[in-house]
Amino acid sequence: MIKDKVIIITGASSGIGEATARLLASKGGKVVLGARRIDKLKHIAEDIGAAGGQAVYQELDVTNPAHSKAIVALAQESFGRVDAIFLNAGIMPTSPLSALKVEDWHETVDINITGVLNGVAAILPVFIEQKSGQVLATSSVAGLKAYPGSAVYGGTKWFVRDFMEVLRIESAMEGTNIRATTIYPAAINTELLGSISDAGSAEAMKQLYAQHGISPERIANVIAFAIDAPEDTTINEFTVGPTTQPW
Ligand SMILES: NC(=O)c1ccc[n+]([C@@H]2O[C@H](COP(=O)([O-])OP(=O)(O)OC[C@H]3O[C@@H](n4cnc5c(N)ncnc54)[C@H](OP(=O)(O)O)[C@@H]3O)[C@@H](O)[C@H]2O)c1
């Protein structure tokens, strides 16, 4: 059931996070939106409210552990509990290693890995205490196989895969009933390509997405399905992408 569930979404200001927030709210979920662009969050939350849904928002930089704790606190203060967290914030500045985009490498690790760790560190005590909860995370098809240009980005998404699987296993062993769901999208039309600083990689990705990209609502539907499943059932992994894309 999605109705009345309190769901935190990181990276909710555009793309997959925004589409998921709008969909979950339309199904009666109480959504808590986090990202750095507060103006965008305000607009999305107002839209949701105008459509009869419930949304609150707060500035969130996932690289800052205090921000992650604060958004969990916002959810509790606003709605009294937390049922799920969608760890979705991410960047994808792909480039060949030979381009030595070292700053991009570190920023990608900080947001895509440390950001996930900060989110889990903030929510785990809550879920352990209530012996229920769901952690969802956005990996990528680049977290399932190696792509040129994706050594670092792909590495962060392989990390998410392993981390989420161990979270699922340990939760089952410890009896905390935490459902762990990882999604592996292929080309989805969002603002993600804006994070690519290497000109050659940006052009190649632009062409790939122009040819194959599908709407972020497709991913939102899968996230909604995973949250909607009965509490005794974990929808563990989903790979989702354009029918035309040969991966
Ligand atoms: N689009 C695809 O083809 C695709 C494929 C596979 C996986 N993914 C993954 O899907 C996730 C969502 O990306 P998207 O495609 O929806 O792209 P997007 O439209 O660029 O959304 C990325 C979101 O992450 C947020 N974000 C970035 N850095 C952040 C930080 N430090 N703290 C908090 N939020 C931050 C952005 O918000 P602010 O800039 O406002 O902070 C934005 O809301 C990412 O993890 C991405 O790797 C996407």
UniProtKB/TrEMBL annotation:
Keywords: NADP, Oxidoreductase. GO terms for cellular component: membrane. It comes from the Bacteria. It holds the Pfam family adh_short. It is an enzyme of class 1 (oxidoreductase). Residues 5-181 form the Ketoreductase domain. Its EC number is 1.1.1.276. The keyword Protein transport does not apply. One of its GO terms (molecular function) is serine 3-dehydrogenase activity. It catalyses: L-serine + NADP(+) = aminoacetaldehyde + CO2 + NADPH. Catalyzes the oxidation of the hydroxyl group of serine to form 2-aminomalonate semialdehyde which is spontaneously converted into 2-aminoacetaldehyde and CO(2). Also acts on D-serine, L-glycerate, D-glycerate and 2-methyl-DL-serine. Does not act on O-methyl-DL-serine and L-threonine. Homotetramer. Belongs to the short-chain dehydrogenases/reductases (SDR) family. This is Serine 3-dehydrogenase. It comes from Rhizobium leguminosarum.
